[in-house]
Specification:
This protein is of the alpha+beta class. The protein has four helices and five strands; from the N terminus they run βααβββαβα.
């Protein structure tokens, strides 16, 4: 069942995030805190009889330049044993529906790797297209 994540999902989300982004990126405590207090992020999960099969994260971007939000799907992950069952598509569709019902929207955005052709195929079937904008990032060195 696809649904919005709750604080009780924090431990399983921590395990999934370790598999997706690598160990040490965050803690279960930080995930709990984010699920409780982060008003800029919506986390959607697929719950298969108490086991989280995957998650989608949506950042609610808002600028004074636009009257509406531009939700950005920033993370999509499905456990390998649950792939090719349409779970990613169901979670993304749920996230889009949730955002559409709760926020005025400008458009949806989505980030993925140029090399992730499987994901691009899924996103294309959901109506996402390459808008030919270049995404740039800059790593910050943490001072200790």
């Amino acid at each position: 069942m696809v649904r919005k994540a709750t604080v009780s999902d924090a431990e399983q989300l921590g395990i999934l995030n370790d598999e997706f982004n690598g160990k040490g990126e965050t803690t279960v405590e930080n995930i709990r805190e984010s699920l409780l207090n982060n008003q800029q992020e919506i986390v959607i999960v697929d719950d298969e009889n108490g086991v989280l099969a995957g998650f989608v994260c949506v950042q609610l971007k808002k600028s004074f330049c636009y009257d509406e939000y531009m939700p950005e799907i920033t993370e999509v992950y499905v456990l390998p044993e649950y792939r090719k069952q349409g779970i990613a598509s169901k979670m993304i569709t749920f996230a889009e529906d949730y955002c559409s019902m709760n926020y005025p929207l400008h458009r949806y955005e989505l980030l993925t790797s140029e090399k992730n052709l499987i994901a691009q195929s899924v996103y294309g079937k959901l109506g996402y297209t390459n808008d030919n904008e270049l995404h740039l990032s800059k790593r910050i060195k943490h001072i200790k």
